[in-house]
Every structure is written in C-alpha cells, then in structure tokens.
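Weekly structure sync, notes
Attendees: PL, DS, HV (note-taker this week)

Item 1: RidA family protein
DS walked through the input record. Source organism listed as Leucobacter triazinivorans. Sequence as pasted into the shared doc:
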Amino acid sequence: MTRQNISSGSHLESLRGYSRAVCKGPFVFVGGMTAGSSEGAVGGDDVVAQTRETLTRVESALKEAGASIADVVRTRIFVTNISDFEAVAAVHGEVFGEVRPANALVEVGALALPDLLVEIEADAIIG
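Item 1 (cont.): predicted structure, written out as tokens:
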C-alpha cells in the first residue's frame, strides 16, 4: 500500500515529526485538528465557532486525501471544559448526522495553546 503524508504547510510538521493527515491504501487518519492560527484561535473563546473551524479543517484534510465526510468511521473530540459537551456535540451532529461515525468526547487538562478549546481527530476508509 502506498503511503501519502498530507501537510498543512506548517514548518512545525517537519520539526516535530507529524503530518496533518496520513493516507495509506483506503485508510485516512486525520491528526488532531484545532482552530489555531498565528493570530490566536479562529473563533476566539466561542467553542461553537472553534468547532466549526476545526471540522472545516478536518474536511479539507480528508478531501486532500481523496476522502469525504461520508467516509469517516471514527472521530475523537477533546475539549478543555466538559460543560461544552452539548455545544460541541451539536456541531459534530450537524456535520456527521447522517454518517454517524463511532465517537468519543473527553475532557483534557489543556491543549497545545491556551486559547484552544477543542481538538478533533478523524479516521476514514475510502470507498
């Protein structure tokens, strides 16, 4: 099976040894996506806006790998405040409502930057 590393273009990927996503055969693994930017989190302190931006980035990585939202079989959601569960889950439902991937949503002590509220991973199988 051929392996394709998908890059966001960030110089940090080579420095820290990771890819935005990896596609091997029909399998696509999208690493932890956030709403982070050099100017701060897209959406500021609005967890719904951050979740929407994060899922837009997940979808972009999937498309680059030749997959789509419909191919997603599993998502993992990390939030810094479990009280955001309903808001984040509602946005997840808007995007994945018909697909219904296996899912986990857990609270973590912190994400990579202090203004990030949510991080999402996705696994897909093409075809």
